[in-house]
Amino acid sequence: MSTGRDITALVRPPRSYFVNAPMGNNFGAAGDVATQSRILRAVLALAVEARDPGLILDDVLQWPAPFAFNPAPATPEAIAKQLRK
Amino acid sequence: MTEPAPDAARPYVRYIDKTRAYYLSQGYEKPYAWANNASAPFTPLSKPLSASTVTLISTSEIAIKGDPRFDDDPETRAKGNVYDVPSATPAAMLYSRTQSYDRYATTLDDPNAYFPLDRLHEAVARGRLGKIAGNCLGVYNAYSQRKTVERDAPEVLGQCRAMGVDVAILVPV
How many contacts does A have with B, using Cβ atoms within 8 A? Predict the structure, then answer.
């Protein structure tokens, strides 16, 4: 599953399913059961049908509002967690 | 400037460019080196989905409410970077502790949006899938390609093989 198409293209997993959604909602929006089910079905179909290594298949989802990645400074809690790894 | 048609596909976010620009703006001179593999490994699925065992592998810091393994205790966390989430866990008991998501455009309030355990159980009930493995797996982000390749990936593979997994869905968050 991918929401970062450029990163996926570099990493080259065996087969990938790209959903143009904000990071964190790979299977669709919270509470959108129909979309979650539809995307899961497509992902499982890809597991069966893919023949080419590194294939990226694009989902049709149109996220209802524009979104952009705006990196924010890490919070103290996030930094502390990283230091413990 | 021409406006895109209303039904035009929204361009996807260039995370690499944006991340690189952000770190340069913060004074880091050396850009982050993203993993860049020359080829992709590939194994065809050898059986129908209706006879396959599936698991989820997540970097969402998925956690179980009330499970002491997910206390913010360094001694607990030191037990491993790969951990199991029993697939029989009700989705209502799951939550994510990660801060690495698009907090401006979405939420992690619904685990099925990034860890679709309920949707998998429904697929099994409909006969689309054989079964879900006993455990799904969580992997903490290590931000180290060496740790991912040498430590975490072999651990994930070993656990998947031990559970007889045929299909592993990797869900990065």
Answer: 164
